[in-house]
Amino acid sequence: MTVFGTRPEGIKMAPIIKELENRDEIQNIVCITAQHRQMLDQVLDIFNIVPDYDLDIFKEGQSLISISRKVLAGLEEIITKESPDVLLVQGDTTTVFVAALAAFYKKVKIGHIEAGLRSGNIYSPYPEEANRKLTGVLAEYHFAPTENNRNNLIRENYPKEKIYVTGNTVIDALDYVIKKDYKFCNPLLNRLDYKNKKVILLTCHRRENIGEPMKNIFTAIKDIANENEDVEIVFPIHLNPHVRSIAYKIFNDHEKVHLIEPLEYEEFTNLMSKVYLVVTDSGGLQEEAPALGKPVLVVREETERPEGINAGTARLVGTDYKELYENLKILLSSKQEYENMAKTINPYGDGKSSKRIVDIIINSNK
Fold first, then answer.
1. In terms of DSSP H, where are the helices of the chain?
2. Is the pLDDT confidence value at 36 over 90?
3. Contact in structure between 238 and 340 (CB atoms under 8 Å)
4. How far apart are CA 40 and CA 264, in angstroms?
5. CB atoms near residue 302 (< 10 Å)
6. What's the predicted TM-score (pTM) here?
7. I want to staple 290 with a disulfide (CB 3.0 to 4.6 A). Which of 146, 270, 313, 335 is the partner?
C-alpha cells in the first residue's frame, strides 16, 4: 500500500507507483489522504494515477492536530481491510508520520522513502524535521537518497542492513515531465525571453521565514531587479495569506517582478528548466534544480539537504539581505562562478531510484 497526501509526496511517490504497476509480483493499493487537495489532484492527473482510497481530509485552516486525527482514524479501517504486507510513505509531512503510526498499530511493515534527511533543528523545518525522525523510528525499510542520509541513520543507531541508498525519486519524476518545446498555460511564461534575459525563479513560503526573514529576501530580490536591466523575476506566490501580504507590499506592481498564481507541477518544472537560476526556501527544489543544471540559492538558516551544498550545486545563504544580494550579484556577473554551480554533477540520483526501491521490496519478501 502506498499512502501520500501532499503535492511533494505525490510527485516523489508517482514514479514508484508506476514501477509497482509494471511488476506482476505486486498488488499495489493507492491511498491518498488529500492533506493537500487541489495541488495533489494536479499531480494525480499528470501521472495518470487513480487512487483506490481517498480520505479527502482537506479543510481550510486545518491544524496539524486535525490532520493527524483524520488520517489516523481514516487509515485504521483501510489497513484492517487490505492488510498490506508493506506500507510505503514518502518524506516528512504529517500524513507520512501518522500513516506510519497507523501501520505500526496494525503491525504492518513500513517503508520510508527519502529516509535520513536531517537539519539538526527539531523546529526547522517545522513540523517536517520531527515527522521524518518519528517515521524513522517505526520503519522497517529506510530508503535513503544519498550516502549522507545513510550516515545520518547509522549515527542514530539504525541497523545498516535495513538502510538502502537509492537516489531520490524526484529525479525519476523529472524525466517523466520535462519537454523541450513545452507550451505554458500562463501566456506570460511563453513571452519571457529566457535566452537574452536572466530570469530568476523565486519560491518562498516556509513558516519560519514569514516576517522579517521574508522581507529581507524580497527586498534583496527587488533591489537586484532594479539594478540589472537584463534580470526578470518570476514568483509563483504560495497561497498562504501572510506570504502574499508581504510579497504584494514589497514588490508593489514592480514591472520586472512577475507575481503569478501557483503552478501545476508540470508547468513549474518546465519553467525551472528554462530559467537562469533559482532562489528558494523549498526542500525539493534543492534536488530538482541541480538535475536541470540550475544554480540554487537556498534562503534558509539550515538545510536537511547538504549534498547539494557540498557538491556546489547550491549555496546556503540564509535570510540576511546582504548575503542573498551579494550572492545574486556574483552569479549574475561572473560567468565562471555561474558555470561552476550549473555544471556540477547532481548528487541526488540518476533517474532509476524507483526501480531500486521496488527491487529491494520484492527481493526482501521472497
1. 7-21, 38-47, 64-82, 94-105, 128-138, 147-155, 169-177, 187-191, 212-227, 241-251, 265-272, 285-291, 306-311, 321-333, 335-342, 353-364
2. no
3. no
4. 9
5. 16
6. 0.80
7. 313
